[in-house]
Structure formats: C-alpha cells, structure tokens
Amino acid sequence: MSELGYFGQYSAEMAMRDYFGFGRDESFTPVFVAGGFIEKYWSPTLYQLAEVLGVEIEETRLVWDREFAKHDIETGFGTVKAGTCCVVNFEFQAIVGGKPVIIVEHVDCVSRDIDPRWNKPHAPVDMAYRISVTGKPSFELELSYGEHSEFLSGAPVMNAIPAVCEATPGLKGPLDIDRYWSRGRVSV
What we know:
The chain has helices at 13-20, 37-53, 155-166; strands spanning 2-6, 59-68, 73-75, 78-80, 85-96, 99-109, 127-133, 139-144. It is α+β, with helices and mostly antiparallel strands. It has 2 domains: 2-134, no CATH class; 147-182, no CATH class. The strands form 2 sheets. Strands 2-5-6-1-7-8 form a 6-stranded mixed β-sheet, covered by helices on one side. A two-stranded antiparallel sheet has the order 3-4. The two termini are 34 Å apart. The mean pLDDT is 88.
C-alpha cells in the first residue's frame, strides 16, 4: 500500500521540514524515522493486514531513502535549497518467511520533477493511494483525489456510525464491526 503525495503547496513548515525532512541536508533524520514514530503508528496496519491474509509477522523493518534537490525549489513553506531533501520514501515492511510480504509505503515530494525510480501517481494529481498485489493474479488499484477531496477524510467515519452504534460494547477494530456502506448520497 502506497501513499504518493506532492506536498509542494503545503504551508506547514515545521511538519514539512522536521517530520518529513524536506529542505534538510543529508545529516538530518526526519521525525518520522527517529524514535519509533512509524513503528508505533503504522504497526497496527501491518498486523491487521496480516490477520486478513492469515500470516504471522516474524519482524517488522523500516527502510527509508531520500532524493536531494538539484536546484532550489519554491514551496508553500519556503525554499527547498539545492542539495537538500526534496523526496522522502518510507517503507514499513512486515517480514514473513524471511521476506517482505506486506509493505506500507510513502513517497512524498515537493517537486513534480523527481527521479523516475520513485513511485508517482498514474494520474496528474497531488495525492494518490495505491494498493499493489503481486501473486496469481497480480493487480494494482489506485485511488486519486480530485476537486473537493477534503470531504473524503471524514466520509469513512461518518459512514461507520450506524455499524459502530449497533456493535456490542468494548474495544473494536475495523474487522470487528459489520460492513457499512454509504446510501442515498447521490445528488442529481
């Protein structure tokens, strides 16, 4: 699973420079990588996917890399100077049978002109989420956002309310409640 994002228009300077490391030199370690941030917040995703797939995770592994700007880049949070980070890639891997079986990845950038080795959205959009499955059959599904995409972040929570209200009391995960669907949401 991949989040492929262009963050060049973002104005949140602290998040972009400290969390992602954009505009920082090679000696800087982004907050996402330091201190177990990704392991803490992304582990539940790996373990839920492993449960669905019926596999047991032997270990998790964090792999990350960057690209450094060849020229100054103007962004919403200021200038990313040549020689500093303009692309950051994080992979959090679930190791099963000695190899990565489930991978949650981010490829985030502040320039659209990035090295072809990085995954990018297939459509000309700022943000896309991709699910790639390698096997028999192999397939790929990409969801990209267009106009009014800000409403999507709250949609799953809103649509889940009836299923959560009908669930038995106690701590629940997404696999513990009935499936929920959006109904009557089309306006003509």
